[in-house]
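Please, structure for the following, as tokens.
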Amino acid sequence: LTCLVIELTPGPNMGYLAVLGATAGRRAGLAAVAGLALGLLVVGVGAALGLAAVIAASPALYEALRWAGIVYFLWLAWDGWREADEIVPEAAEVQRSNARYFGRGLMTNLLNPKAMVFYVAVLPSFVDPARAVAAQTLALSLLFVVIATVLHASIVLLSSTARRFLSNATQRRLTARALSLVLVGIALWFAWSTGRGIG
């Protein structure tokens, strides 16, 4: 239930997948979902090994990860804007490699400090210290990944239905550029929401 509530809260992953599903289509979106799932799992394994706690405890490492994520979202926005002229409705999914979107999804979660914070601040409260902590952390991480993946896939499937309303290249181009601006907004929100107060 906690994972469900957290994942239903609007965030970078949700925004990125909605944009991707509406512009690049279902296959690209689902490839990104697979990348996001692997990224969450990698972060979960890192948490089980203590890496998330190290990053959360180090302001320099946390800030480096945070700013890398911000810059990455801004790059995605720029890339989407730049490629808006290349979008052809009939060929969009064919021209773009699903591996490319998988990699983008993976990087989105690997550069998301909020994922690390979840594994440090939320997940440990469900771990029984009297039992094997690493095994519990991995099991709970896997559960979180499954819940997140189901929700992410649902977002892609819903947003991809918007593509049918973008019947010509001009509509698709304008939509892609508008959604690139949405990604800029997501990057700014990400910068604000992951910032740590001073003092």
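The chain has a mean pLDDT of 77. The radius of gyration is 18 Å.
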